Amino acid sequence: MIERSSFFDFVTYAVMALGLVIIITPFWIVLVAASLSLPEVARVPLTLWPSSHLMENLSAAWSRADLGPKLLNTLVVAGGVTIGKITIAALSAFSIVFFNYRARMLCFWLIFLTLMLPLEVRIVPTYSIAANALLPFQALLDATGITSLVETIAGIRIELNWNLLNSYTGLILPLIATATGTFLYRQFFMTIPDELVEASKMDGSGPMRFFFEVLIPLSRTNMLALATIMFVSSWNQYLWPLLVTTDRPNYGTVVMELKALIPAQNGTPDWNVTMAGALLVMLPPLLVVAFMQRWFVRGLITKDK
Amino acid sequence: MERRAHYRNRVLPWLLIAPQLILVLVFFYWPTSQALYWAFTLEQAWGGGNEWVGFDNFMGVFGDGRYWSTVGRSAVYAAAATGISMGIALVLALFVDRGLKGTKIFQSVFIWPYALAAPVVGVAFRFIFSPQAGMIGSLNRIWPGIWDPATNGLHALIMVIISHAWLSIGYNFVFFLAALQMIPRSIAEAGAMDGARPARRMLDLQLPLIAPTTFFLLIMNIISTFTDSFGLIDTMTEGGPIGSTEVMVYKIYYDGFKSLDYSGAAAQSIVLMLIVITLTFVQFKWVERRIHYT
Questions:
Q1: Residue B248 burial (CB < 10 Å; 0-12/13-18/19+)?
Q2: Distance of residue B143 Cα from the nearest chain A Cα, in angstroms
């Protein structure tokens, strides 16, 4: 604050309070509705104060949408994407920044370009690869003539097939195949002074030792930010899980199951159970964002002034 | 930007980058090039591979009046949702940036929507906007039929757009606030010395100084109306009533996975990809070195 202006301070608080109402109201309604009984939730206008049925609605939503195993699935997927992305991104950024090889910039651009098209935009083509993830390699073998060569010599026809539908790998891998994390790391690695590299070289450390003992400890903040972003975005995935999991009972995620909790057009309007389900599904990423806010905000923004 | 100190090794860098490269090739480049192939071919009904049809699929898509209304609807959706969300987020960020006492509480709540999945927001707002129950229900008691997204297409579209705008406030707020906080304090002080009141400083100092972020957000928001809209529409309206909330991504999903018209969906995907790529290029051209990540 630069000067005192009690009128403008009043305006500031008024606007922020209005913003608070806009943001909080939907959360509050979900929470309130999740605590009402069926006749209470059907009442018009809606009561805006919580009632006492929260636990029974939560357990109704839990059993109706079979949330136990679904939560576990979602946790496996979100955890897998987070850990996978952090690892792969750190390694590839390390390779691009700290090694000098000719194809370095080509690799950089190959990875960089993937930032342009989010998964939802290229859903049709990506789906085709999920049925057989080894298709590109098969095509490569066919094109180079290795397939026919092996067939004539050994009499075996090479048929590579790896179906990713209804599997954790299918849910996880396509989400890792983007450049987000690589760039966060690259940006950070660029700020590491050359002297540090030279010093550790002089002390006789090899590249991997430098990576594990200097870079990883230094990039802890970035790692936390990336972890938050990745956890939230993979927990919230909807379209991709919808397509690759036909076996809903075993591989469904919580966000997908939510739709099943919506009351049917002419069925019982038990929105209280639906809202209880929504509450359960939104809670984990909300807690992560609330607790990690400091790092996550720093990671979203690159300060290169 | 170029580094002087490097490690020298023939194999190691390739081993390090291999996992990322393989993933990107298998799940990005291969499928995207396949989509190009499908877009120009037609799968034969009785098997026997694909037949080259040139631009026929695109002609089919572009000749379809329903496709153009989907494109128009997507444009309206993108403009409205982006405008509302960025407007609210910017105003909130400008006032939070003043850093008055207690601002921290407001600040952390304003980020919350970022954590939510589009379908969760869809389900919640479907209840809030439900004509029979909840909040809007009382309006309908007084004036029957004043609000009915289940049968009125315009109401349905407004409902989805409001939900989308609300969902993106958190993300926009984070970026706006960060950009504002990066403005050196001395500039604001100099403005105050010259007699500029807070409101004047907001308009003539802060807004122009955060223009790169605003532009970046504009592009990111438009792209998110292509991506996040699916989760909202699928849980709120399923494209209905009578296709009045069907946007481009939803139509691709519907044509490709419900009507099983792969070639048509591939052609539509290519068009959508070109739009998104163009938007991203425009952004890079403008914002140049200042790259942000999501």
A1: buried
A2: 14
Which pair of tokens denotes residue B247?
Answer: 């946007």
The per-residue pLDDT for range A14-49, each reduced to its tens digit, is: 999 999 999 999 999 999 988 888 777 777 777 788
Of B21, B125, B289, the CB nearest to A107: B21
| Residue B133 near chain A (CB below 8 Å) | yes
In the predicted model, what is the mean pLDDT of chain A?
A: 84
Contact B119 A44 (CB under 8 A): no
CATH class, domain B57-287, is: mainly alpha
In the predicted model, residues of chain A with pLDDT beneath 50 are 302-305
Average pLDDT, chain B: 84
SS (H, E, C) chain A: CCCCCHHHHHHHHHHHHHHHHHHHHHHHHHHHHHCCCHHHHHCCCCCCCCCCCHHHHHHHHHHHCCHHHHHHHHHHHHHHHHHHHHHHHHHHHHHHHHECCCCHHHHHHHHHHHHHCCCCCCHHHHHHHHHCCCHHHHHHHHHHCHHHHHHHHHCCCCCCCCCCCCCHHHHHHHHHCCCHHHHHHHHHHHCCCHHHHHHHHHCCCCHHHHHHHHHHHHCHHHHHHHHHHHHHHHHCCCHHHHHHCCCHHHHCCHHHHHHHHCCCCCCCCCHHHHHHHHHHHHHHHHHHHHHHHHHHHHHHCCCCC
Closest-CA residue of chain B to A134: B26
CB A251 within 8 A of CB A171: yes
Instruction: Tell me the domain boundaries of chain B.
Output: 57-287
Set out the domains of chain A in order of their start, with CATH numbers: 65-261 (1.10.3720.10)
| Mean pLDDT computed over B30-39 | 82
Q: What is the token pair recorded at A99?
A: 């090694």
B198 in Cβ contact with A5 (< 8 Å): yes
Alpha carbons A98 and A190: distance in angstroms, whole number: 9
